[in-house]
Amino acid sequence: MYTVGVDFHKHTSxxxxxxxxxxxxxxxxxxxxxEVIKEFICSVPGPKQLxxxxxxxxxxxxxxxxxxxxQFHLGxxxxxxxxxxxxxKNDNTDADLIARLAHxxxxxxxxxxxxxxxxxxxxxxxxxxxxNQRRSVRNQIHTxxxxxxxxxxxxxxxxxxxxxxxxxxxxxxxxxxxxxxILDRCLDKFDTLNxxxxxxxxxxxxxxxxxxxxxxxxxxxxxxxxxxxxxxxxVEAGDITRFNKAKGFAFYAGLVPSENSSGDKxxxxxxxxxxxxxxxxxxxxxxxxAMRTDKGLRAYYLSVKARRGSGSAVIATARKLSxxxxxxxxxxxxxxxxxxQPPAADxxxxxxxxxxxxx
Length: 359
Known about the structure:
The chain has helices at residues 34-43, 58-65, 81-84, 91-104, 115-146, 164-172, 177-205, 214-217, 229-237, 246-252, 277-293, 295-308, 310-331, 344-347, 349-358; strands spanning 2-8, 12-18, 24-31, 48-53, 71-75, 257-259, 268-271. It is α/β, with parallel strands linked by helices. Helix 2 links the parallel strand 4 and strand 5.
């Protein structure tokens, strides 16, 4: 099988073609025109595989060449350190290295998702972008209030200044002219973002027929009544069968601690880097709701909290929830609550009574 390595850029791309024995037979630099690219790919004889590094526009290239190659490989950009740390880095060298990694089978691969899944992922990430903007505006308003109002002068009839009573208080709050101007603009921006987020969320809900497994995920605690987190988990995870184990899914979500062990020394550090932050955020947010409705997760959280503290307990519970989500989606079945095993003393009243008499 012939191997084609591509170093894809915005306007041009470099190509290196290897034969079955790994010998270089062709090298080109082409303009990124669909017809030119297809003509060159079709000129490569025999069955062929094509490999490229994942970029923001890899989907555009994939849709162009997928019908003309036998295999398509997408290189993971963060794991391809051989390219980023090379001292002689140029387009031809990168294309040659990608081709040789693919030919030898050592190319670190990224998941190739369908066009539908990529579009849905862009949609939920756009909603996340708007939510982050709204959070920035909220923080700006809180900062403005803190620098103009003494804490003792703030009303105690509400906790959130963005509730109905809080908005009325903000409207009637007396501030210097310039500060009042900033507050009014921030409130207008906040209302505008709220409307835009509602429109996007309504559109996301209308696309639920495209998401396989949503019916089963809705049986999982934390996702039964949530608006968007269920959609975020499904589109960010993609095909759940690409993960061999539940721990692999938790690792992809960034809920597994890093490890630096050697010999008899075992060291675990902070959560792994380079994870899917959108998926991690959705799982952690849903964990708080899940602990209120599932007794098993609540008991697990309390047991870890007693030993490690609240922060570590939330992460551990989110990791346990991700294991449940993995099995629910992979097996296509409803969620089954974890049975809480009572202590042995609770199962044997006679033993408990005897222990009290001895005490």
